[in-house]
Design brief:
Layout: E1 6-10, H1 19-25, E2 31-35, H2 47-63, E3 68-71, H3 74-79, H4 81-87, E4 93-95, H5 97-107, E5 113-118, H6 120-125, H7 127-135, E6 140-145, H8 149-154, H9 161-178, E7 182-186, H10 194-200, E8 205-207, H11 209-223, E9 236-239, H12 244-253, E10 260-263
Parallel strand pairs: 1-2, 1-3, 2-9, 3-4, 5-6, 5-7, 7-8, 9-10
Helix pairs in contact: 1-11, 5-7, 5-11
C-alpha cells in the first residue's frame, strides 16, 4: 500500500481526459497534475525543447513525492519518455503511447485500415507505427499530423463550425484516400473532439489512449504494491497558466469532489 499521489502531466489540459477513467477504475488514488498551459502546444516545438520542458515538469512532480509518473501526453511520450525514465530509475514512468498501440494490436487485423492522428512531433517520431508494426507487420497503419487541433481545443473552440471545418480539412482526404476504418486519437486533447469526429464520420471506430492507459497504471500499481487505501491526500492540479478553460474542465470532471487548483510558474 502507498498513499502517495500519482503524478500526471501534459502540455496543457488534454491530460485531464484521463481523469474520468482513473476516477472510475481507481477511485482511491489521488493525483498531482501539471498542465503546461503557458507553453502549449508542444507538438510543433523542437525535440530538445520538449525534452527540456518535460524533464523540468518531471522534476517538479518528484519534488512533490509522487509514487509514479504518468506522461499523459503523446508528444512527450514520443520524444522524452526514455529521458525521464533514465533520470528517475526508481520511479515507474508510464507513457501513453504503448497502451494504445497494444490496444490496436489486440483489436485490429489485416482487414482494418488504421489511422493515427496526432501532433507533428508525435507523427514525425513514427513511434505508433514502430510499436504496432513491430508486433504485427500485417496491420495497415497510416498517419496524419493535425497541428491546429490543440490550439483550438485549448481555446475552448470545440462544438462549433470552426472545429468541424478544421477536422474536415485534415481528415476528409486522409480517411477517404486510405479507406480508414479505425482512428487512434494520438493526442490526449483529441478526446475532447471525439463527438465531432464520430458525428462527421459515422461508423469510424475510435481508440482513445486516455482510456487505455488506465489498465497499465492498474497493472503497475498491483505489481509494485503501490495501490492507495483510505488516503487523506487531496488531489492538486497545477498549471503554468490558469486559463478559464483549464479550471472549467476540472470543475466539470470533479463537480462533487474538492480539489485544489494552483498556479505554478516553472522557470529555467
Amino acid at each position: 500500500m502507498d498513499n502517495r499521489p500519482i503524478g500526471f502531466f501534459d502540455s496543457g489540459l488534454g491530460g485531464l481526459t484521463c481523469m474520468p477513467y482513473l476516477m472510475r477504475e481507481l477511485p482511491e488514488e489521488k493525483i498531482i497534475y501539471f498542465g503546461d498551459t503557458a507553453r502549449t502546444p508542444y507538438g510543433s516545438k523542437a525535440t530538445d525543447t520538449i525534452r527540456k520542458f518535460s524533464i523540468q515538469i518531471a522534476d517538479f512532480l518528484v519534488e512533490n513525492d509522487v509514487k509514479m509518473i504518468v506522461i499523459a501526453c503523446n508528444t512527450v511520450s514520443a520524444v522524452a519518455l526514455f529521458d525521464i525514465r533514465e533520470r528517475f530509475p526508481n520511479i515507474p514512468v508510464i507513457g501513453i503511447i504503448k497502451p494504445a498501440a497494444e490496444k490496436v494490436i489486440q483489436a485490429c487485423s489485416a482487414e482494418n485500415r488504421i489511422g493515427i492522428i496526432g501532433t507533428k512531433a508525435t507523427i514525425l517520431s513514427g513511434v505508433y507505427d514502430q510499436l504496432i508494426k513491430g508486433q504485427n507487420s500485417e496491420l495497415n497503419v497510416f498517419s496524419m499530423a493535425c497541428p491546429a487541433f490543440v490550439p483550438l481545443i485549448e481555446e475552448g473552440i470545440l462544438n462549433n463550425e470552426i472545429m468541424d471545418l478544421t477536422i474536415k480539412h485534415y481528415l476528409n482526404d486522409f480517411l477517404l484516400e486510405n479507406r480508414i476504418d479505425t482512428v487512434v486519437l494520438g493526442c490526449t486533447h483529441y478526446p475532447l473532439i471525439r463527438e465531432n469526429i464520430e458525428r462527421l464520420y459515422p461508423g469510424i471506430k475510435i481508440i482513445d489512449p486516455s482510456q487505455e492507459i488506465i489498465s497499465t497504471i492498474k497493472d503497475v500499481l498491483a505489481e509494485r504494491d503501490l495501490g492507495a487505501k483510505d488516503s487523506t491526500f487531496g488531489s492538486t492540479f497545477y498549471a503554468s497558466d490558469l486559463s478559464e478553460n483549464f479550471t472549467n474542465m476540472i470543475d466539470r470532471i470533479f463537480e462533487n469532489t474538492e480539489v485544489s487548483i494552483q498556479f505554478k510558474n516553472l522557470e529555467f
